[in-house]
């Protein structure tokens, strides 16, 4: 029986960083589903399609092939063979991801990919509807949250590390819009599953969050960590 650990949370809550680290500690595969939605947004952008036009976005799905590969333990995102891992991490693609994630057709396509990826491996998967839709039977579900201020600062740090600069106000506005879009979309909105354990990371460093989650996994009796 493959072990599945679901980690959900809003933008900037640290779920991708934490999921990757927890997966490494456990020897599991990390799957960042948010990167897949960013990849769809990138494809739409490159094709001249508007993110807020559902028919335009859906029109490109049949012509793109999104895949995940693991290089030296890290997840890389590919679109039709091109490595777009870095290209999808911009703040702009985050806005695009929030827009395309509202479309049922996009979610259905990526859900098929996500569920295929977990069939043959132990995984830590993060996103916004993992515990509620993608892996509803996961034995461990975590919902990470943090204050808006903490999440904005993390995103600024992430962009700075990539050599990109953005001002606080623009990132704050983008994150507030992302939060609203994610929690109010009709299809698979961001929410904490009833059996999820909520962890507020606002005043925690990465190591503290990792240890907290490992302790939760141990308490669930899934495996001895």
Structural account:
- This protein has 9 helices and 8 strands.
- The chain is of the alpha/beta class and about 220 residues long.
- Helix 1 crosses helix 9 and helix 7 crosses helix 8.
Features:
single chain; 47% helix; 8 strands; alpha/beta; five-stranded parallel sheet; 225 residues; three-stranded antiparallel sheet
Question: How are strands sequenced across the largest beta sheet?
Answer: 2-6-1-7-8
Portion in strands: 15-25%
Radius of gyration: 17 Å
The shape is globular
**Assembly state:** single chain
The chain-level structural class is alpha/beta
In short:
With 225 residues, this protein is α/β, with parallel strands linked by helices. The chain has helices spanning 15-26, 33-46, 54-58, 91-100, 104-117, 130-134, 148-161, 168-184, 206-220, and strands spanning 4-8, 29-32, 66-71, 74-79, 82-83, 123-127, 140-145, 197-200.
How is the secondary structure organized here?
Blueprint: E1 4-8, H1 15-26, E2 29-32, H2 33-46, H3 54-58, E3 66-71, E4 74-79, E5 82-83, H4 91-100, H5 104-117, E6 123-127, H6 130-134, E7 140-145, H7 148-161, H8 168-184, E8 197-200, H9 206-220
Helix pairs in contact: 1-9, 2-4, 2-5, 4-8, 7-8
């Amino acid at each position: 029986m493959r072990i599945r650990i679901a980690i959900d949370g809003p933008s900037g809550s640290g779920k991708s960083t934490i999921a990757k680290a927890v997966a490494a500690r456990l020897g599991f595969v990390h799957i960042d589903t948010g990167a897949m939605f960013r990849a769809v947004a990138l494809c739409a952008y490159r094709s001249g399609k508007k993110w807020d036009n559902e028919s335009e976005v859906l029109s490109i799905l049949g012509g793109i092939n999104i895949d995940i590969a693991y290089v030296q333990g890290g997840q890389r995102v590919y679109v039709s063979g091109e490595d777009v891992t870095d290209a999808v991490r911009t703040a702009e693609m985050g806005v695009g991801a929030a827009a395309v994630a509202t479309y049922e057709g996009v979610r259905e396509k990526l859900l098929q990919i996500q569920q295929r990826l977990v069939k043959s491996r132990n995984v830590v998967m993060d996103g916004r509807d993992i515990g509620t839709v993608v892996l509803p039977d996961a034995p461990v579900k975590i919902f990470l949250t943090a204050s808006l201020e903490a999440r904005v600062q993390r995103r600024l740090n992430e962009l700075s590390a990539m050599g990109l600069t953005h001002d606080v106000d623009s990132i704050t506005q983008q994150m507030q819009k992302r939060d609203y879009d994610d929690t109010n979309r009709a299809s698979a909105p961001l929410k904490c599953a009833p059996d999820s354990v909520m962890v507020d990371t606002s005043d925690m460093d990465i190591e503290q969050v990792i240890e907290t989650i490992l302790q939760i996994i141990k308490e669930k009796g899934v495996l001895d960590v």
